[in-house]
Design goal:
The chain is 28% helix and 22% strand. With 352 residues, the chain is α+β, with helices and mostly antiparallel strands. It starts with 18 loop residues before the first helix and ends in a 13-residue tail after the last strand.
Length: 352
C-alpha cells in the first residue's frame, strides 16, 4: 500500500495564515472566483465588495475558548467587524452560526453569548440571523463559531468619487493596489499581544504571562482615521502577523517595503516570551491592531488621531514603501538588514 504524500493532505499549517494557507487558496479555492464584484474573490482580500456593500465571513476555532482578555464570543464579533473596517466599510449587521459538541456546558454557552452581545453593542453592529448545530461527543472540539458580516460605505465619507480619489485613495476601497512608493507604514499598537495571551492561557505550555489579548473592534477608530484621509490600505495582522501582511502588500502592489525593527512597538513581556519560545514576534497574530499604508503628507494628522484614541496610543511609524527594493526588508536593531519572508503559518496554532 502506497504512502500518502504530506502535500496531498490538509495540515494545521494550511489554516495558519502563512504560505501554506495562501497556496491552498490559490490552488483550490480561487477556482470559485468568476470576478464578480468591485473587490472580487480573486483579489484574496479579507472581504468582498459588491456595489457599495462589503461582505465577509469568518470561522473561529480558538483554543482555549476563554483566554486572558477575551473569549471566542468577543473574538468572533471583533474579527468580522475588523475585516469590514479594513476595507474602508462601516459594519452594520452580522450572522451567527454556532456548532456545539454534545455535552457542552450551557453556562459556558450563555457566557459566550453575553460576550457576543456586549461586543456587538461596543462595535455598534446588530446580530440579525443565525444557525445552531450540535455534533456527537468527540467529533468536535467543544465549539466552532462562524460569523458573516455586511457593511456599507460610511455615510460621513459618501463623497463624490473624484473627491475620494484626491483625498484618500485611487480606488473607492482600501486595497493593496492603492499603495504607492513613499507611503509610510504605520502599526496602530504593540504587536504579538493576542498570540502570547492565548498561548499563556493554555494548560501545559510551561510559561506564565500577564499579557492580555488586544482583541477589540477597530471600526470606530478606522472611521476617525478615514475622516483625516491619506490611507491607501489597511489590514489587521491576524494569522501570520505583520510579516505575512507586509509580504501580501508587497506581492500585490509590486513594491518593496522597508521597516525598522527598533520602531516596532512590542511590550517587554511579549518580547521576553518570544525569546523564551524562540519565535518571531512579526509572525504572531493580533486581533486589535491594524497596519496602515499612509501618504506622507497625512502621517502627522493620522498619528495625532491614533495617539488620542485608546486603541492607538502606542501607534508608531515603522517603515515605508519603496520601489528600489524587492519584498520586505527590515533594518535590525544592530544595524544590519534581513529579509522578512512570508511565514509558513502562525507559530501559535488555533489563535482565532
Amino acid at each position: 500500500m502506497g504512502t500518502v504524500n504530506s502535500r496531498d493532505v490538509i495540515t494545521l499549517l494550511h489554516g495558519a495564515g502563512g504560505s501554506y494557507m495562501h497556496t491552498l487558496i490559490r490552488e483550490v479555492f480561487i477556482r470559485l472566483s468568476d470576478g464578480f464584484g468591485e473587490v472580487p474573490l480573486d483579489l484574496m482580500d479579507d472581504a468582498a465588495v459588491i456595489g457599495n456593500t462589503v461582505f465577509t465571513t469568518d470561522s473561529f476555532v480558538i483554543r482555549p475558548i476563554f483566554f486572558k482578555g477575551g473569549d471566542i464570543g468577543r473574538l468572533s464579533v471583533t474579527g468580522t467587524v475588523n475585516d469590514i473596517a479594513m476595507m474602508g466599510g462601516e459594519p452594520i449587521a452580522l450572522s451567527l452560526g454556532v456548532i456545539l459538541e454534545e455535552g457542552f456546558p450551557k453556562s459556558d454557552l450563555e457566557r459566550i453569548v453575553d460576550s457576543i452581545r456586549d461586543t456587538a453593542k461596543e462595535a455598534k453592529v446588530h446580530i440579525v440571523t443565525g444557525d445552531t448545530k450540535v455534533m456527537e461527543r468527540g467529533s468536535l472540539d467543544r465549539i466552532v463559531i462562524n460569523t458573516s458580516g455586511l457593511g456599507v460605505r460610511p455615510k460621513e465619507l459618501d463623497h463624490d468619487i473624484e473627491t475620494l480619489r484626491k483625498t484618500r485613495q485611487p480606488r473607492d476601497w482600501l486595497v493593496p493596489l492603492n499603495i504607492r512608493p513613499g507611503d509610510k507604514v504605520i502599526v496602530t499598537g504593540t504587536v504579538g499581544d493576542h498570540a502570547v495571551a492565548v498561548l499563556s492561557s493554555r494548560e501545559g505550555v510551561g510559561f506564565e504571562s500577564n499579557i492580555t489579548s488586544d482583541v477589540a473592534p477597530l471600526n470606530g477608530l478606522m472611521l476617525n482615521l478615514m475622516e483625516v484621509g491619506g490611507i491607501a490600505d489597511a489590514k489587521d495582522p491576524t494569522r501570520g502577523g505583520v510579516a505575512d501582511l507586509l509580504q501580501d502588500w508587497s506581492e500585490k502592489s509590486g513594491l518593496g517595503i522597508y521597516i525598522r525593527e527598533s520602531e516596532i512597538p512590542v511590550k517587554d513581556e511579549v518580547r521576553a516570551a518570544v525569546e523564551f519560545l524562540g519565535i518571531d514576534v512579526l509572525e504572531l497574530g493580533n486581533e486589535g491592531k491594524a497596519v496602515l499604508a499612509v501618504s506622507p503628507e497625512y502621517v502627522r494628522d493620522i498619528m495625532a488621531v491614533l495617539h488620542s484614541h485608546p486603541l492607538g496610543k502606542n501607534a508608531a511609524v515603522i517603515g515605508e514603501v519603496r520601489k528600489d527594493i524587492e519584498g520586505v526588508v527590515m533594518e535590525t536593531v544592530v544595524g544590519g538588514e534581513r529579509y522578512v519572508g512570508r511565514p509558513l503559518g502562525d507559530p501559535v496554532p488555533r489563535i482565532c
